[in-house]
Write a sequence for this structure.
C-alpha cells in the first residue's frame, strides 16, 4: 500500500482519523500548524519517497477528500532526540516544551504500534498553505 493520490497530488493524512485529524487540519487551515512529523519507517514500509521541497500535497479529511493544498518548504530527517524546539513550535499543537512534544509524539506512535527510541529517524516536514 502506498500513500494515497488525491487530485493528482500525494495526500497528507495528519494524525489519526476522527477528532484528532479534524483538530490538526483546522490548525493548518487557521495558519497555526506549519509542520508535521512522520517516521522514516513508514516511508520505507510503504516504499515511498520523502516529500521534496516545492512539492504540492493534498491535505485530506477522513474521507480522503482534499480540503486544502500545501507546498513543502523543507524536509529533514533527524533522530527523535534531535527534533528541535523550533520544529515543535511550528507544529502548532500547543506543546509548552520540547519534552512535552516528545512525550506526546512518543505516546501517539507507540499507540500506533511503533517502537520509538531516541535514535528513531523522524521526518520533519515544513509546509505552507497554498491560497485557494
Amino acid at each position: 500500500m502506498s500513500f494515497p493520490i488525491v487530485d493528482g497530488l500525494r495526500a497528507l493524512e495528519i494524525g489519526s482519523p476522527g477528532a484528532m485529524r479534524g483538530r490538526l487540519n483546522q490548525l493548518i487551515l487557521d495558519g497555526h500548524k506549519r509542520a508535521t512529523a512522520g517516521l522514516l519507517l513508514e516511508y520505507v514500509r510503504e516504499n515511498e519517497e520523502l516529500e521534496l521541497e516545492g512539492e504540492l500535497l493534498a491535505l485530506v479529511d477522513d474521507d480522503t477528500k482534499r480540503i486544502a493544498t500545501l507546498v513543502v518548504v523543507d524536509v529533514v530527517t533527524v533522530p527523535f532526540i534531535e527534533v528541535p524546539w523550533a520544529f515543535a513550535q511550528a507544529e502548532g499543537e500547543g506543546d509548552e516544551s520540547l519534552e512535552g512534544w516528545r512525550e506526546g509524539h512518543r505516546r501517539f506512535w507507540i499507540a500506533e504500534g511503533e517502537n520509538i527510541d531516541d535514535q528513531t529517524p523522524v521526518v520533519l516536514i515544513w509546509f505552507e498553505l497554498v491560497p485557494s
